[in-house]
């Protein structure tokens, strides 16, 4: 019997992986059991499948899926850097006298780079939505429905924090003010990436997204550089301790974005035209 946690872990694998190995993996979980260690292994395997997708034997379809995986990974890393940047700026603003001018300049550069990358991401998202509407494959957009129940928690979070500060006993209000927006941000990072893999964009759109993803990856890297500079140049021990988790997230996001976008751009620049298997779905 497969419990709910194992089913969620199995569903977290990329669609291309589930098409090829989903039945075998589900049968294996039923035979071995779905304990906490098995669920953890499934989640780690899912992360590896997203970062290094299994490619079919056909080179053209393999390149198409490589671009698809690159676009999804770049989006997630951009979201991670986008969320980490204001947190880092807020932490450093608590002790402005201890933050070197170089770190401030790097944060400004990272902020403008992320905004510019956001315009690139928005253009790519509109291209995917336009093609999805044209082909009638609106079922692929269903993961975006998950944003609807989490969006209100993001909007009312400031009011909940004010109420929690007035009534310290309302711990659950403060927890909702923190966990609600966190759930929205995570959903905002994951849902569009799932849409990209489900709607199967045409090779033409994927090529555009994969090539523009290189610029997005460099924007993410600027945030990672700013975090490294903030940790190494700030002399306040408390600020360094709080900055370390943000540093780990941004450095991991930068590395994943550079590697994945590089592979996606290589596939997009291949001399042979990728097979357009998803354009008319």
From TrEMBL:
Keyword Transmembrane among UniProt keywords: yes
Keywords: Membrane, Transmembrane, Transmembrane helix
TM spans (from-to): 72-92, 112-132, 144-166, 172-196, 208-232, 238-259
Name of protein: Uncharacterized protein
Organism: Streptomyces fodineus
């Amino acid at each position: 019997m497969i419990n709910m946690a194992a089913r969620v872990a199995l569903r977290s694998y990329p669609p291309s992986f589930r098409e090829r190995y989903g039945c075998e993996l589900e049968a294996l979980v039923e035979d071995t059991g779905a304990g906490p260690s098995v669920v953890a292994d499934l989640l780690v395997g899912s992360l590896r499948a997203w970062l290094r997708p299994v490619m079919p034997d056909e080179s053209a379809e393999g390149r198409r899926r490589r671009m698809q995986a690159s676009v999804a990974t770049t989006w997630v890393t951009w979201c991670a850097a986008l969320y980490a940047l204001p947190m880092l700026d807020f932490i450093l603003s608590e002790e402005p006298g201890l933050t070197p001018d170089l770190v401030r300049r790097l944060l400004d550069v990272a902020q403008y780079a992320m905004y510019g990358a956001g315009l690139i991401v928005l253009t790519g998202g509109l291209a995917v939505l336009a093609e999805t509407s044209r082909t009638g494959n609106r079922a692929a957009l269903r993961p975006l429905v998950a944003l609807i129940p989490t969006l209100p928690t993001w909007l009312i979070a400031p009011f909940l924090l004010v109420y929690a500060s007035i009534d310290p006993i309302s711990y659950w209000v403060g927890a909702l003010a923190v966990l609600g927006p966190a759930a929205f941000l995570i959903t905002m990072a994951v849902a569009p990436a799932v849409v990209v893999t489900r709607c199967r964009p045409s090779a033409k759109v994927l090529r555009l997204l994969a090539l523009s993803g290189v610029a997005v990856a460099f924007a993410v890297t600027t945030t990672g550089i700013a975090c490294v500079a903030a940790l190494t140049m700030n002399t306040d021990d408390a600020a360094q301790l709080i900055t370390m988790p943000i540093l780990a997230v941004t450095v991991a996001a930068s590395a994943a974005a550079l590697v994945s976008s590089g592979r996606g751009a290589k596939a997009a620049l291949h001399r042979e035209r990728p097979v357009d298997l998803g354009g008319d779905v």
